[in-house]
Amino acid sequence: MSAIPTTPASPEVPVWSVDPRTGERREQVAAEAGPQTVDAAVLSAHDARGALTDRSVRSAFLRTAAESLEEAREELVAVSDAETALGATRLTGELARTCYQLRAFADAVDEGAFLDVIISHPDATATPPIPDLRRYKVPLGVVAVYSASNFPFAFSVAGGDTASALAAGCPVVVKAHPDHPATSEATVAVLRRAADRHGIPAGVVGLVHGFDAGVALVEHPLVAAAGFTGSVRGGRALFDAAAARPVPIPFHGELGSLNPVLVTGPAAAERAEEIGAGLAASMTMGVGQFCVKPGLVLAPADASGDELVKALAQSLADVAPGVMLDHRMRDNFVAGLAERAELPDVEAPVSPGATDAHTVGAGVLTVPAHKLADGAGGAHDLLLEECFGPVTVVVRYEDQAQADAVLDRLPGNLTATLHVSAEEAATGSAADLLARLTPLAGRVLVNSWPTGVAVAPAQQHGGPYPATTSTSTSVGLTAAERWLRPVAYQNTPEALLPPELRDDNPLGLPRVVDGRREG
Amino acid sequence: MSAIPTTPASPEVPVWSVDPRTGERREQVAAEAGPQTVDAAVLSAHDARGALTDRSVRSAFLRTAAESLEEAREELVAVSDAETALGATRLTGELARTCYQLRAFADAVDEGAFLDVIISHPDATATPPIPDLRRYKVPLGVVAVYSASNFPFAFSVAGGDTASALAAGCPVVVKAHPDHPATSEATVAVLRRAADRHGIPAGVVGLVHGFDAGVALVEHPLVAAAGFTGSVRGGRALFDAAAARPVPIPFHGELGSLNPVLVTGPAAAERAEEIGAGLAASMTMGVGQFCVKPGLVLAPADASGDELVKALAQSLADVAPGVMLDHRMRDNFVAGLAERAELPDVEAPVSPGATDAHTVGAGVLTVPAHKLADGAGGAHDLLLEECFGPVTVVVRYEDQAQADAVLDRLPGNLTATLHVSAEEAATGSAADLLARLTPLAGRVLVNSWPTGVAVAPAQQHGGPYPATTSTSTSVGLTAAERWLRPVAYQNTPEALLPPELRDDNPLGLPRVVDGRREG
């Protein structure tokens, strides 16, 4: 472990790296950051803004960061596995994704479309007349990034929030997740070496540990925006703090999601086994600790639905017990299951829960739809809350009206999935169902599974609250929009204009000029 | 007055139209909306969503609305002048602008670029592999619009928030401003007749009166977003309410702005008289009741700066007293002036304030820059707050360091203006000053005045808090972005896809396909 501690070790509140496979402390990684340490990190980040002004420096830095992370792969994966138990295969893949993401943002920085250059030349015929107006987007300033427990690379120190913020020209200060402090330190050290190679101060990516540090961060006057991936409780508290500041700031938080799946009768009749097996694979990926885990499945209350549940149960029986990210999550999972399992008419064809002192087994709960469809306030409403871990709730519906009634009761989601038959897909007869699911989520899938979030221009990883606290995405190239604000220059002489806005377009940017798209 | 009351008149809390020229009540227009009336308006709007799905219906409705408002011009201008005292010329111009804006949004709806269609075809070489992903933007739902006092047409019932929300496919419920309830009723009647001509239910534009109704509106579960133009106090209270909801919603508020102006030494030396006269015209437009009124002007503390102040004072002496929008505003203006004028070292070359029981005269206050530059906490900080009405504060600075120190203390603004000499403009030597002003505002002007906000694609009417509570604009075609959220469809069969996202592009939309821009 060659991580460079970024906060002075203090005997008062040590930060430990813990092995979730044993619950034992591995080593003290750092100390929790007090207010002065947070302030210093934010000031250093603020001072590093200028170093990101040049887009070519920014993109080169992002590419070097990707390359350097790849070079450090062996160490990073080992450290991360030791404190998350996610396994070398998964973590190697996640690191590759993280590097791909950094490079994709580097390409986006070079292209410059995200600057949204719009030029309106003077037009005396408009009401009122239009003067010379030139608009583009500028970085907001220091971005606070709150790491996720479940993605130590892709949604943490070098993850999507950081990559998109740096791409936008914003330095970041990351609040490390307590489940992987050593990985966080190792990652930030790599990023800082990469920054140094491009003459960018190390402060461009700050790192702080500790709950109080996270609160201090979102309240710091020089923090201009925040990105968060985590729980509804933690995320909402930080959202509230961001909104309550004397100067409120945008808080882009991804909090929680049930990710409902609707299986039609014809779909179940056509391929109950395939759907059951697919569901088992999706809901147990990463020990059920994915934000897009399908957590609630509407399946018909008929024989083909029975077959689906049977196939799901069979597949789950083959899934080996897994280690969750930490013991607190494990305890929450076990307690949450117990509370759900004892609800009237809830059955457990495969009982999920603790298998030994450290591992948990995957399972499934079933419930008749009328328990959820009959309005709010009942004990069964608990089933409409996310249960983080390898469990899904299959809701058996009698008819479409009952399925609709359950859908009506769902909170916002990252994803919603529709499983239809080949005929329903080909004839378009299921288009109404797709329209039914669209208001529920930011990403709507057909005949596939929501786990696995591609880094692509058309990606949308964000949905109605509590899935996300804003209308933005945290994955995909439009994620950079979150850290920018538009500025328009009026009647500004060519010699004073930023090069991005000059008529001769010296930087070759795509832009819209007098309503016409160029480049 | 042929306004159709939309809320049942109730003797309990009548809503009066008042003549600000006399302070007398003109007529009872409606009654304040209770919780049930607000609920009914929101439900009607919610039910009207489907009628806005077809973009061609939407754009036709917006054009008919513009046409109908023009047809009703004489009546609308008369009603509005009677309760705002803004004068027929100004109001006729404002109505024309409002109609232009509706048509500009209609054109944008037809073009469809705001749908932001992005298609990513499957790519197995990506990490992780990219499935078929197709993203566009869908309407958020019912939008609450809070009318502004100072623009009874352009920022009220048929103003920019309403036009952009309807363009985005969102019905609206407007909270009328108490300064022009009759204008609000007359306007909504015209919009509803226009809606009817396109088969759109009247509820597509709701109207409610009363402070409590405004609070109930932002708290209504079916309200999905809000647009606001008004005071810092009122706007912040509603922003806080929007953020505190169980499901928080986006609140796009334009609250307050000083709109600083920096006049360089060479600019003052070159054209002190022209700048003084231009400033007088800009700051007294609409009796100083513009959100972009230049409220704080940094001028050199030398002879040319003296000349500028003299020219300003001379021009102001020629400005006739004006009637403010209501007597509460007038009282606030007079009280605010008195408090400012009695600060040590503040002088009033032309004393603004009450001229008779109903009118106010324009004026200017001056203060040495060191009173503001020397850090926070002093009584002079009051000069850094907006004073709504025909007054500006000229801050006399000794050197650039002193001017910078004052700029550092400013809150966020809608606009910031730079006046430079011809040489500074031509050689680009003032580029640093432009960069200095950019962080302060959403629109930066050179050698012109901020009043007059063009409706143009490149417009940005929104700046750092408290100018705006989000990074959005409320004027210009990108204003529609506020009322949309992205949705991505994954692996969705062609027959189930919305036509906007089909490969063959049946609607001929501009889009980005696999990174290439089309159309």
TrEMBL record, chains A, B:
GO-annotated molecular function:
2,5-dioxovalerate dehydrogenase (NADP+) activity
The record ties this protein, via InterPro entries, to:
Ald_DH/histidinol_DH (IPR016161), Ald_DH_C (IPR016163), Ald_DH_N (IPR016162), Aldehyde_DH_dom (IPR015590), Aldehyde_DH_Superfamily (IPR050740), ALDH_KGSADH (IPR044151)
Flavoprotein as UniProt keyword: no
Its Enzyme Commission number(s) read: 1.2.1.26
Outline the extent of the Aldehyde dehydrogenase domain: 17-463
Protein keywords? Oxidoreductase
Designated name of the protein: 2,5-dioxovalerate dehydrogenase
Q: Which organism is it from?
A: Streptomyces candidus
Q: Mind giving the lineage of the organism this protein is from?
A: Bacteria, Bacillati, Actinomycetota, Actinomycetes, Kitasatosporales
